[in-house]
Design goal:
about 575 residues, single chain, alpha/beta, about 35% helix, 23 helices, six-stranded parallel β-sheet, Rossmann fold
Length: about 575
């Protein structure tokens, strides 16, 4: 069957075309089902247990599949695609080592509530449990880090399973769902007819909040003299950024956004106080500690935000709005729990609130803190400072780029100094802190948003964990601008060893790293290097003028630290402010 024009047809046209039952293989059922779910790009790597699936792709010429160079690259790319688009990301890998290479990416998505459908092959059903070649119990291995998983033993279940998987991944608290397909199931033949029915027993996420709890929140807002908003990634995942803006501006309550909430509220707005927590702003951390009403919207009170728990927000009545009831009260005792979808909560809440007149003195104090304690660093004309590099990226792009990062000091500097104007513009591994995430997630983000500038900011450590994906950028001319903040050291580990472990530096030297410009050129990607401000400006402008991918090696100061910093065991207002 020639399906070369399927991409040109709408989902409804495809459904109509395939409405008459037709005998096809499990592999074709998978491909058709993905197309019917609106999937327009799959990231993957073939192997023995998925060869029937890849063989079926041969006749689906317009089925978009991006061949990465490692399974971890595939799942991080699917993750970046999901975060940038709001759709479900999809990746495919073979059994055994192919499947286990996905584990870190699954855990990354699970911790950050990213909707993925992860498809793995397995040995034939007759061989399961025999320690066959390339057999691994991937459903068992990933049980703690998936929202749900399926081992499909009968091909007739495949259409239902795929449809359910997308529904589960992208509803309630979003997350990864794994579908494990034995090789004989992908080869089996059966009559296929699209089925849109959903009946997942025991799965009924609550989206509409209790009205009495909404009324309690309205009353608390009307009484508060020092109210404060803590907004997290749930705002973005719910698509509630416009409703959050309306709520904050109606009430004129100051607001902080967590690491995963960046972009959920405009960074340039006067009510925004920056990021809270371990490397958050002086203003945000002190506002949490001194507020009398803390309204948590779609954040999970993780340890990097709260610091020492028994000293967190000591004067505040705590409100927690979240779609996942398991998060409410898990870490911080809550006075007003509200379970529901953030967007739905705002739709009920916003018509009931008004400006908090009694909080004028609080707002003045917040603005004074913002003026007196901005982020600071000692600039230099001789040595390139990483903070300056991020400021340059922000100024030259007007905060309009999609920024992905790896994990470490550069991640925190990017969060501090890049100012986001739009939602779904900041893509980073928050909960798991996965090195190697930055480059492949940028590839996925660029596939999701081909018309936007995507900047991948990396450290010289993390970039080496998935640098093989430079090949994908070159082969497919994916125009990601790959920035390396190169300080020749594992920067965040060095900072902790300096400040907490009495300068006992242990196994952090990355001086033996490759020449990143030559590495880029070896893959067919333009490489540029800068060691001072003038070179940095010239290189960055050349990168922006280049239509394809570019890698920029910014050689920066080795001893620079991220400040402010809250050390473990401290309350978040006990900040190390640095030399400044």
């Amino acid at each position: 069957m020639n399906e070369q024009n399927t991409e040109l047809l709408s989902i409804e046209q495809l459904r109509k075309k395939w409405m008459s039952p037709e005998v096809i293989s499990g592999s074709e059922i998978l491909l058709r089902s993905l197309l019917l779910e609106g999937v327009d790009c799959v990231f993957g790597y073939p192997g023995g247990a998925v060869l029937y699936i890849y063989d079926a792709m041969y006749n689906y010429k317009e089925f978009k599949h991006l061949l990465t160079r490692h399974e971890q690259g595939a799942i991080h790319a699917a993750d970046g695609y999901a975060r940038a688009s709001g759709k479900v990301g999809v990746c495919i890998a073979t059994s055994g080592p192919g499947a286990t290479n996905l584990v870190t990416g699954i855990a990354t998505a699970y911790m950050d509530s990213v909707p993925l459908v992860v498809i793995t092959g397995n040995v034939a059903t007759t061989l399961i449990g025999t320690d066959a070649f390339q057999e691994a119990d991937i459903t068992g291995i990933t049980l703690p880090i998936t929202k749900h998983s399926y081992l499909v033993r009968d091909v007739k279940d495949l259409p239902r399973v795929i449809h359910e998987a997308f529904h589960i991944a992208n509803t309630g608290r979003k997350g990864p769902v794994l579908i494990d397909i034995p090789k004989d199931v992908s080869a089996a033949m059966i009559k296929f007819k699209p089925d849109d029915s959903i009946n997942v027993r025991g799965y009924n996420p609550r989206t509409v909040p209790n009205k009495l709890q909404i009324d309690k929140l309205v009353q608390a807002i009307s009484e508060a003299k020092r109210p404060y908003i803590l907004a997290g990634g749930g705002v973005i995942y719910s698509g509630a950024h416009e409703e959050l803006f309306e709520f904050a501006t109606r009430t004129e309550i100051p607001i902080t956004t967590t690491l995963l909430g960046l972009g959920g509220f405009p960074s340039g707005h006067e009510l925004w106080t920056g990021m809270p927590g371990m490397h958050g702003t002086y203003t945000s951390n002190n506002a949490i500690q001194q507020c009398d009403l803390l309204i948590n919207i779609g954040a999970r009170f993780d340890d990097r935000v709260t610091g020492k728990l028994n000293g967190f927000a000591p004067h505040a009545k705590i409100v927690h709005i979240d779609i996942d009831p398991a998060e409410i009260g898990k870490n911080v005792a809550v006075d007003i729990p509200i379970v529901g979808d953030v967007k739905t909560v705002f739709e009920m809440l916003n018509p009931l609130v008004k400006r908090t007149e009694q909080a004028d003195e609080w707002r003045k104090l917040i603005q004074q803190w913002k003026s007196d304690y901005p982020f600071r660093y000692t600039d230099s004309d001789e040595v390139l400072k990483p903070q300056w590099v991020i400021e340059m990226l922000n100024e030259t792009t007007n905060g309009e780029a999609i920024v992905t990062t790896d994990v470490g000091q550069h991640q925190m500097w990017a969060a501090q100094y890049y100012k986001f104007n739009h939602t779904r513009s900041w893509i980073t591994s928050g909960g798991l802190g996965t090195m190697g995430y930055g480059l492949p997630s940028a590839i996925g983000a660029q596939m999701a948003q081909p018309d936007r500038l995507v900047i991948s900011i990396n450290g010289d450590g993390g970039i080496q964990m998935c640098s093989q994906e430079l090949a994908i950028c070159a082969i497919n001319n994916i125009p990601v601008k790959i920035v390396i903040i190169n300080n020749q050291v594992l920067g965040m580990v060095r900072q902790w060893q300096e400040l907490i472990y009495n300068n006992r530096y242990s196994h952090i030297d990355l001086a033996g790293s490759p020449d990143f410009v030559k590495l880029a050129e070896a893959y067919g990607v333009k490489g540029l290097r800068a060691t001072n401000k003038e070179e940095a400006r010239i290189a960055w402008q050349e990168a922006l003028a280049t239509p394809g991918p570019v890698l920029l090696d910014f050689v920066v100061s080795k001893t620079e630290n991220v400040y402010p910093m809250v050390t473990q065991g401290s309350t978040i207002d006990q900040m190390l402010m640095g030399d400044e």
